[in-house]
Design brief:
The protein contains 20 helices and no strands. With 496 residues, it is mainly α. The protein folds into 3 domains: 193 residues, MFS general substrate transporter like domains (Growth Hormone, Chain: A); 57 residues; 237 residues, Growth Hormone, Chain: A.
Length: 496
């Protein structure tokens, strides 16, 4: 098989990216619109928060069944069904008449959106084969990077200049185009329902993930994990996930074959993803808050200011994919990680009036490192897998990324709030948003002092990202450092 991606692979990649970018963009687009939605439906902001949280929980609930569903119904059929659910949920959410109806339709959206990414990754990986998986993963990474950057820009524009309904309706034409393209372009596959659905495993894992992510999200929102509700939910979710792992090790046909992690490449990739994901997504969570709370920028301005990060990542991501296939992912990741560490180290010197020329350069450099790290790490896990193992591994890696993102956001939210309270920038029961609102009503000389304290808190919190990324070097050293062997992948351990 040639190392070059032919036209059919590129066409398949275009279909998958169109579907994936909708589901990922939707998270940040809706988050920007929450205050507008609360005013539209005369609802509390805490109630409207469920418009975002319900979508995320639906994602977490349905992702675990994707691997089994790919084998049972076929990847093309599952991908198209996911698109139909997502588009239907989008159309209904745009026609919502109350907060409660919108939350329900967002759950429907999430049930479709949760399967789009893992099913799409499976389709692409199987289409490209082990020798070209690096290039393919670099394509899959595009929506992951564009979502957090373009979401605030698109959401701010639609809410301010069009109408809130279009944050949902915009998915309908894109989804229908993707659906037609998927029907015409994706290769039909024959379902191979060789295994029954692992119902006990599903009853452990899906509720466990939903409870764990809900607990982390609620704790981050309150900037505290000490309340009984948050503690109980988070601990119960973690216990259910742990119970699933124990059962999966003993079950004949588990929902996700955790025995795949006995392979060094898969285990090293998973550990790198967890450590790297917590550090990076936690740090990225801070950047929009810095612009809005410290510098008083709007959501739209914030999104525009973060563009250099996406430009940097899009520049190196194709290069990282080519190098991964030629040299092995381990060597590429060990180049990307130091670049990210250096960029975050630069952000530990944040001040209230830090020049944007410096910030833009740091964001661009950060993006360069992300392009050489994120997808090569995932490629390391996928390169050594046989055809039938890819759906389960893809599902597992998507779960890992979702949990790492939730942990990173929650942990850095609490760390930032603690840093602000230690410096007296917010009252003991307050948060940064309240400080930003109060800043609009205080004299200029006091405002400068408050902004300096807030900036100092952001800078100190960035140190945690640097420390965690340094820890990510340990598993990264065990990633494969050679060109993938297609014969080895074909002879890989079969699923039992």
């Amino acid at each position: 098989m040639s190392d070059r991606l032919d036209r059919t692979v590129w066409a398949t990649a275009a279909v998958v990216v169109l579907g994936a970018i909708m589901s990922i963009l939707d998270v940040t687009v809706v988050h920007i619109a929450l205050p507008t939605l609360a005013a539209e439906f005369s609802a509390e902001l805490t109630t409207m928060q469920w418009v975002a949280t319900g979508y995320t929980l639906a994602l977490a609930t349905v992702i675990p069944v994707t691997g089994w569903a790919c084998a049972r119904f076929g990847t093309k059929r599952l991908f198209m069904t996911s698109l139909v659910l997502f588009v239907a949920g989008s159309a209904l959410a745009g026609a919502s008449w109350s907060a409660e109806s919108m939350i329900a339709f967002r759950v429907l959206q999430g049930l479709g959106g949760g399967m789009i990414m893992p099913a799409g990754m499976t389709i692409l990986t199987q289409k490209a084969g082990p020798q070209r998986v690096g290039k393919v993963m670099s394509v899959v990474g595009i929506p992951m990077l564009l979502g957090p950057i373009c979401g605030p820009i698109l959401g701010g524009w639609l809410v301010d200049d069009v109408s809130w309904e279009w944050i949902f309706y915009i998915n309908v034409p894109i989804g229908l185009i993707t659906l037609v393209a998927a029907w015409r372009i994706l290769t039909p596959d024959v379902p191979e329902p060789t295994e029954r659905l692992d119902v006990p495993g599903l009853l452990f894992l899906s509720p466990g993930l939903a409870m764990l992510i809900y607990g982390l999200a609620t704790g981050a929102e309150r900037s505290s994990f000490t309340s009984a509700t948050v503690l109980t939910t988070t601990i119960a979710g973690a216990a259910l996930v742990a119970a699933f792992v124990v059962r999966a090790l003993m079950a004949r046909n588990p929902l996700i074959d955790v025995r795949l992690f006995q392979r060094r490449s898969v285990a090293a990739a998973a550990l790198t993803m967890v450590t790297f994901g917590i550090a990076l997504f936690g740090a990225l969570f801070l950047l929009p808050l810095y612009f809005q709370w410290v510098q008083g920028r709007s959501a739209l301005e914030t999104g525009l200011l973060l563009i250099p990060q996406g430009v940097g990542a899009m520049f190196t991501m194709p290069i990282g994919g080519v190098l991964t296939d030629r040299m092995g992912p381990g060597r590429v990741v060990l180049v990307g990680l130091p670049i990210i560490v250096g960029s975050l180290f630069g952000l530990t010197f944040l001040e209230a009036d830090t020049a944007y020329s410096m910030l833009g350069a740091l964001f661009f450099t950060l993006g360069l490192g992300m392009g050489l790290t994120m997808m090569p790490t995932m490629s390391a896990a996928m390169q050594t897998l046989g055809h039938d193992e890819v759906p389960r591994a893809s599902t597992a890696l998507n779960i890992i990324q979702q949990v790492a993102t939730s942990i990173g956001t929650a942990a850095f939210s609490v760390l930032l709030t603690t840093a602000m309270k230690d410096r007296g920038a917010v009252p003991s029961g307050g948060d940064g948003e309240q400080a930003a609102q109060a800043a609009q009503q205080i004299p200029p000389e006091m405002l400068a002092k408050l902004q300096a304290l807030l900036a100092e808190a952001f800078a100190s919190t960035m140190w945690w990202g640097v420390i965690l990324l340094l820890a990510a070097f340990v598993p990264a050293f065990f990633l494969p450092r050679g060109k993938p062997d297609p014969a080895a992948a074909q002879a890989a351990m079969p699923m039992h």
